[in-house]
Design a protein that fits this description.
This protein is of the alpha/beta class. The protein has a five-stranded parallel beta sheet with strand order 2-1-3-4-5, sandwiched between helices. A four-stranded antiparallel beta sheet has the order 6-7-8-9, covered by helices on one side. Strands 10-12-11 form a three-stranded antiparallel beta sheet. It is 39% helix and 22% strand. It has helices spanning 12-24, 35-42, 74-82, 95-111, 141-151, 160-168, 178-193; strands spanning 4-8, 28-32, 46-49, 64-68, 87-90, 115-118, 121-124, 129-132, 135-137, 158-159, 201-203, 207-209. The longest helix is centred in the middle third of the chain and has 17 residues, at 95-111.
């Protein structure tokens, strides 16, 4: 069965042109102006987001590729990636490259296990639902990505450098409290469900692990 794509773009002409091309490539294609109501109604496999400012109103809950404007620069790309998109393609783009980027993101999703379990934590990658001992834990996009990284090897201590590169895409690390602040918020979310939990363990001077020693 072909993948279902949602084209969320405020420009009707852009939506229509891309919809026609991608349908011709064998995708199931839906289109509209705003992502949130359509994502909830259609449950697509991937969103092509034509208005990156929508990331300020909507945190991606399915794989998302931003189609940036021709004036976009590196700062715009980094900001969009930090806000939760999976890839960023500037316009004008080569159609064949866009299709390959869509397929690459879809391959990553398919190859990953749908259900990740680590101790009392259960992560459903399909719905991005996180539970602790069966109780729902609401997490933001980057907290979710950090949790997935830690849950991939829950007893291992990941260094701060590893996590900043894999979750945030940092190349030059410098001085940043980004990881620490996200880890702290994630820990607080778990403790709101279980005040005694030791999840998201800070190993002083090294980094973080999901399950305490």
């Amino acid at each position: 069965m072909s993948a279902a794509l949602l084209i969320a773009d405020p420009e009707a002409a852009a939506r229509g042109h891309l919809e026609e091309q991608l349908a011709g490539a064998g995708f199931q294609v839906h289109a509209g102006a705003e992502p949130l109501p359509l994502v909830e109604a259609l449950r697509p496999d991937l969103v092509l987001l034509g208005d990156e400012s929508a990331l300020e109103r909507w945190t991606p809950t399915v794989p998302t590729i931003v189609l940036g404007g021709p004036e976009a620069d590196a700062f715009d790309r980094v900001r969009a990636l930090r806000q939760g998109c999976d890839d960023y393609v500037g316009r004008p783009f080569v159609y064949e490259e866009l299709v390959e980027r869509i397929n690459a993101v879809l391959r990553r999703v398919v190859s990953a296990p749908e259900l990740v379990e680590a101790g009392p934590v259960r992560i459903d990658r399909r719905t991005r639902r996180v539970t602790l001992d069966g109780e729902r834990v609401l997490v933001a996009q980057k907290e979710y990505e950090l949790l997935l990284a830690l849950a991939s090897d829950p007893e291992r201590v990941f260094t701060k450098e590893e996590l900043l590169r894999s979750v945030w895409g940092y190349r030059s690390l410098g001085k940043t409290r980004t990881l620490d602040s996200h880890a702290s918020r994630l820990r607080r979310r778990f403790r709101a469900v279980d005040p005694d939990t030791g999840l998201v363990d800070n190993v002083w001077g090294v980094g973080y692990r999901l399950l305490p020693d």
